[in-house]
Amino acid sequence: MHAIFFKEVKMIDLKENQTAWYLIFICWAIAFIATAGSLFFSQVMEFPPCELCWYQRIFMYPLVIFFVISLINLEASAFKYSLPLVILGWITSLYHNLLHYGIVPESASPCREGVSCADIWINWLGFITIPMMSFFAFSIILIILTIFYRRYLR
Predict the structure, then answer these.
(1) Among 5, 20, 44, 153, which has the highest number of CB atoms less than 10 A from its own CB?
(2) Taking a C-beta distance cutoff of 8 angstroms, is the pair 137, 31 a contact?
(3) Is the CB of residue 60 less than 8 Å from the CB of residue 35?
(4) Furthest-apart CA atoms within the chain: distance in Å
(5) pTM of the predicted structure, to 2 decimals
(6) What is the pLDDT of residues 72-121, one digit of tens each?
(7) What are 124's strand-pairing partners?
(8) Which InterPro entries match (predicted)?
(9) Distance, C-alpha 78 to centroid of its chain
(10) What are the residue boundaries of the structural domains of the chain, listed by start?
């Protein structure tokens, strides 16, 4: 793990590798949809975000910028900047889901005032909630970045 974050990451030219460009583009699209979705839920649907939702937003929103800069500059530099945010966002969303589904007691929640982190605002198909969508988004981005690293930056 230390080598990934602190070692000089080998840069590749995305102009010459279309598959690598598509992987970064998919990460950008997921981050963009997640960002737009969170803004839609809070601004249009007027669902107030809980404290854990705010943390997940803090980790997701910059990813849109990191990935688009990487796509415009046609280089793979987004990897080393986005991976820590994705890992922290994934851990936060995992904890939020454990709290949301009652595996972790609500007394262990950081949400002391305002909206409870265990509140269910939507429940599509009986299991798709806002924290679950966040977990899926961070998980897919983490999987794609892992594939990207193993295939192009190792």
Answers:
(1) 20
(2) yes
(3) yes
(4) 52
(5) 0.84
(6) 877 777 788 899 999 999 999 999 889 888 887 776 666 666 666 666 66
(7) 128
(8) DiS_bond_form_DsbB/BdbC, Disulphide_bond_form_BdbC, DsbB-like_sf
(9) 14
(10) 13-153
